[in-house]
Write a structure and sequence with these properties.
This protein is α+β, with helices and mostly antiparallel strands and 234 residues long. It has one domain: Aspartate Aminotransferase, domain 1 (Alpha-Beta Complex). Helices cover 45% and strands 13% of the residues. It contains nine helices and five strands. It has helices spanning 2-7, 15-24, 26-41, 70-81, 86-100, 105-122, 149-155, 185-197, 225-233, and strands at 53-56, 125-130, 134-139, 162-168, 171-177. The chain has a five-stranded mixed beta sheet, with helices on one face. Strand 2 and strand 3 form a beta hairpin. The protein is globular and about 55 Å long. The termini are far apart.
Length: 234
């Protein structure tokens, strides 16, 4: 806690928590926070499983041109919603390739989101939201003990990301902001979740067992017929 005071925890806590510190003092706030964490730790084991919801833009889809049958598309979506392990994603990919051919970008996006959901669930999170330059990771109320304030201090500013801590009831959440508006937040969520549980601040790199978010294909520039004719004569 002393380290948190020296390094300025007010910069990573949300406005509400920062205001509490100013009102009651850091020492008392630290005690209250410790008491809350201790209470949450006492709830460990009450619920061993939980569902993790994911909101992601772009979220991906199964286009009709890839799977023509609406019943088959619905069945695939239902199967995808129940996936809880990486191996299930890989098995599904192989099946899709065998039955429908090369997997299009929309489906790759959809499956990449599943990988994020699975990893977040393993990390004790029950809500994940990813937009272009903003994200949100919330720990399940029985897993809040896995939240490490000092780790947030270490990771704040990692890869240019700003991390803010918020609390609501028994839930602890991390708000993620990319001030540079680079639109690459989706690619950084997996290594960030890994980093939250690691002991050292990592360098941003793709996990070896997981494919990265598929990139949009650059549009080919159309050359006007007149220019082509001019090139031929020169």
């Amino acid at each position: 806690m002393r380290d948190m005071e020296l390094r300025g925890i007010g910069n990573i806590l949300g406005r509400q928590q920062h205001g509490h510190i100013a009102a009651i003092g850091f020492d008392l706030y630290s005690k209250l926070l410790s008491d809350t964490v201790a209470t949450l730790k006492g709830k460990k084991g009450i619920q061993l499983e939980w569902e993790t919801t994911l909101e992601m833009i772009p979220k991906g889809s199964i286009p009709p041109k890839y799977v023509e049958s609406s019943k088959q598309r619905m069945a695939l979506h239902q199967r995808i919603s129940k996936i809880k392990k990486y191996a299930e994603v890989e098995n599904l990919k192989e099946e899709l390739k065998d039955i429908y051919g090369k997997i299009p970008r929309e489906v790759e996006q959809l499956l990449y989101g599943v990988v994020i959901r699975v990893r977040a669930n393993q990390a004790g999170m029950d809500v994940v939201s990813i937009r272009k330059n903003k994200g949100y990771l919330r720990y399940h109320q029985t897993q809040s003990e896995r939240f490490d304030p000092l780790r947030i201090l270490q990771l704040d500013g990692w890869e240019g990301l700003k991390l803010l801590v918020t609390t609501k009831g028994d839930n602890v959440a991390i708000e993620i902001v990319d001030p540079r508006n680079r639109g690459t937040l989706i690619e950084k969520i997996l290594p960030l979740i890994d980093a939250l549980e690691a002991e050292e601040t990592p360098h941003f790199e793709k996990p070896p067992e997981i494919e990265s978010m598929p990139k949009p294909q650059p549009k080919k520039k159309k050359i006007k017929a007149k220019k082509l004719a001019q090139k031929r004569f020169h």
